[in-house]
Amino acid sequence: MRYRYTKFTGDLLDELDLDELISKLSDFLMSSGFSDPYGLSDEDHTLQALHDAILDALFNGGLLSDEMLDRLMGDPADGDQEEVRDRLEQLIQEIVERMLQEGYITAPPDLDAEREQRQGRGPGGDGNDPAELRFEVTDKTLDFLGYRALRDLLGAMGKSSFGRHDTRAHATGVETSGPLKPYEFGDTLNLDPAGTILNAVRRTHEERLRPARGAGGKRGAAEPPSARERGWGPASPEGRYLLGPRGLDIQHQDLVVVEGEYQSSCATVLMLDCSHSMILYGEDRFTPAKRVALALAQLIRTQYPGDALNVVLFHDSAEEIPLGELGRVRVGPYYTNTREGLRLARRLLDRQRKDMRQIIMITDGKPSALTRPDGRIYKNAFGLDPFIVSETFAEVAACRKSGIMINTFMLARDHDLVAFVRRVAEICRGKAYFTTPYTLGQYVLMDYLDKKTRTVH
């Protein structure tokens, strides 16, 4: 029997970096409805749309090396385009299956086929059209995209690592980066073991060598320490144990704590404008905003666990959404009810007992809606309505009265809008940033990382 050996070339799927592919698909997976600005269809999350997005990422995202392209496309002299198409379709199908297996996406069950099978008829017809089958993005994918967005944003800012929110005040119990200090009442017992034991040993040694007093109260010659003073006897009358097998005599004045940099805590509400203008005018502004929110959530969860982050969407009205649902949110044909968003954010921050409370508002439009006391929505999209603007400024003043700072990140440069934003910053003593969807993340993270160095004093 003869054996023929050939060179093992491996599988294209094994050589493909799936994590890098997910990063290339981030805009598609977090789609905000930009492909259909009028919301007449809902085809973003179909398997056919995923197929097209993967195909575009493979050839335009630089994921395939020259060697992989040669193996995939074959010899051009053969001219067998059908075989090339079959190999490419098989690769994309394997990628989708791998994404399903590793939990990046989930597909709904085929209820029609299951129903027919239970009825004993077996799967009938041609089955569901793959172009109509939909998938859902999982929390694992959103966490991964938030991590990659945070890494890319911090790398763009030139920061090798991200630290804590430090202030100019010193306190005990946070970071062991400061000098030692004697313990005072109220300090956190962040004891320095070496310094505390050294103080106890030094004090005990000085007490042993202290000259004994004579009957007349005068100091006499030094007497050798007794067995009890050496620490080999029972406990002292005061109930303290001396140095030796009985233990170590540690008193209140021996305690030493480590002084560190005080790190203040912060409660943040991220207000995202999801009005229709965020996907109009040939630019998707809402997807970058969602990416920034995911990166900020990742930063707080990993580096500032004591901080709080809430997300509020404002449009005709306003509502709070869980962070896990942020990547799945889409914009709609809504107006911009800025006052209702600020009111909800203020209620959320009033529950927090943090050193700092702030609102990060990302918007591209002027306020054009207002919620009346009876619940009805007053709308006016033509210019800055004086009634809407005055009520919005009143809510900004209420935020300032509650000690809440508002920082606004603008994605437009309209003259009237610029004047409105600057007035908001003036009332609440916040800041106004005029940025683009491409630089939004850097501005937001830089503002957040730098925030606590200039407050609480």
CATH fold category name of the largest domain: Rossmann fold
**Span of the ends, CA to CA:** 86 Å
The best one-word shape is flat
Contiguous uncertain segments of 5+ residues = 123-127, 159-176, 227-245, 453-457
**What spatial order of strands do you see in the largest sheet?**
8-7-6-9-12-13
Derived from helix and strand composition plus strand pairing, the structural class reads alpha/beta
Fourth-tier CATH superfamily name of the largest domain:
von Willebrand factor, type A domain
CATH class of the largest domain: Alpha Beta
Please characterize this protein's 3D structure.
The protein is of the alpha/beta class and 457 residues long. The protein has three domains: 12-137, no CATH class; 160-165 and 265-454, Rossmann fold, CATH 3.40.50.410; 169-213 and 225-260, no CATH class. It contains 15 helices and 13 strands. It has helices at residues 12-15, 18-24, 26-29, 47-60, 66-73, 81-101, 111-118, 139-156, 193-208, 227-230, 286-303, 338-350, 386-401, 415-428, 440-451, and strands at residues 105-106, 136-137, 166-172, 180-182, 256-263, 266-273, 308-314, 318-321, 356-363, 369-371, 377-379, 405-410, 431-434. Strands 8-7-6-9-12-13 form a six-stranded mixed β-sheet, with helices on both faces. The chain has a three-stranded antiparallel β-sheet with strand order 3-5-4. Helix 4 packs across helix 6 (81-101) and helix 8 crosses helix 11.
